[in-house]
Specification:
alpha/beta; Rossmann fold; eight-stranded mixed beta sheet; 8 strands; disordered N terminus
Length: about 290
């Protein structure tokens, strides 16, 4: 089956994607490669996760990983001391709850896997210290309802960390984003909201929004680029000649220097579907 024909399941789409030699880099970047344990270990060692760690509560407790996919974040949270519940409605053994269970068994980690949706969390009130959502909010069918559920299941003082969310400047930009998205044509399911819609849903649920990370202000939001490709691209934009361009790229190599330059550029970023990350807390508690 060709990608243009579409697929009846995300599992079929990913199987097709993994069979395309020219998509190998995308497969690896999305952590769809096998063995899954090695992919999860690579995520734990990534710049993205190192940056995410700075956003997590100091005290470890119960964590809910919503839209957990293959379980790479569930694995990493469990490895860092959280008691993890992974919420994933897709039962697939390749890209869903079946994959998470296999990963948990391979890593000998006690991850509780639950097949359900963010808009109807099957958990008691105030159960979790952390709700972690990696590229999840833009997939929700009801953004406001999902945020209300996250608030409900968090303990007072608990934290919501929602990372890698697609943002558009205006609704008219959505078709252009979907057309350019490398995975949307395979199965659909992608979406994007305006930044105001995300913040309104988070605050409307009762959260105190404590931090918003712009597209180039953190490695969390660099995808599909990396620090290395961004450094080269930035040097190429600023200097047209190859030799001084290489020198500038070298000068941008230190993380603080590159980070400062990209943080400034992120203020001008208007790409449809650019990535933002959000941190919010439920009031109360002592953390």
């Amino acid at each position: 089956m060709s990608a243009d024909a579409g697929f009846s399941s995300w599992e079929d789409a990913v199987r097709w994607l993994r069979a395309q030699p020219d998509r190998a880099e995308l497969v690896r970047a999305a952590y769809y490669d096998d063995p899954l344990l090695a992919a999860a270990q690579r995520y734990e060692a990534s710049d993205e996760w190192r940056a995410i760690r700075t956003l997590l509560p100091a005290a470890r407790g119960a964590a809910l990983d919503v839209g957990a996919g293959r379980g790479i974040a569930s694995y990493t949270l469990a490895r860092h001391g959280y008691a993890v519940s992974a919420l994933e409605p897709d039962p697939s053994a390749l890209v869903g709850s079946g994959a998470i269970r296999a990963l948990a068994a391979a890593a000998a980690l006690p991850i509780d896997v639950v097949e359900d949706y963010s808009e109807r969390l099957p958990f008691d009130d105030a159960r979790f210290d952390l709700v972690f959502a990696r590229a999840v909010l833009h997939h929700t069918r009801d953004l406001e309802a999902a945020c209300r559920e996250y608030f409900r299941v968090l303990k007072p003082g608990g934290r919501l960390v929602a990372v890698r969310e697609h943002v558009i400047s205006r609704h008219a930009d959505l078709p252009a984003f979907l057309q350019a998205h490398p995975l949307h044509a395979l199965y659909g399911g992608e979406h994007a909201y305006t930044r105001a819609e995300y913040t309104r849903a988070i605050r409307g649920a009762g959260f105190r929004l404590t931090r918003v990370l712009r597209p180039l202000a953190s490695p969390i939001n660099y995808f599909p680029q990396t620090a290395e490709t961004l450094r080269r691209d930035l040097a190429a934009r600023l200097v047209p000649w190859r030799a001084p361009r290489a020198l500038l790229a070298a000068l941008l190599a230190p993380r603080p220097v590159l980070g400062a330059a990209l943080a400034v550029l992120s203020l001008l970023d208007r790409r449809p579907g650019r990535l933002y990350s959000f941190v919010a807390e439920r009031a109360g508690g002592t953390r």
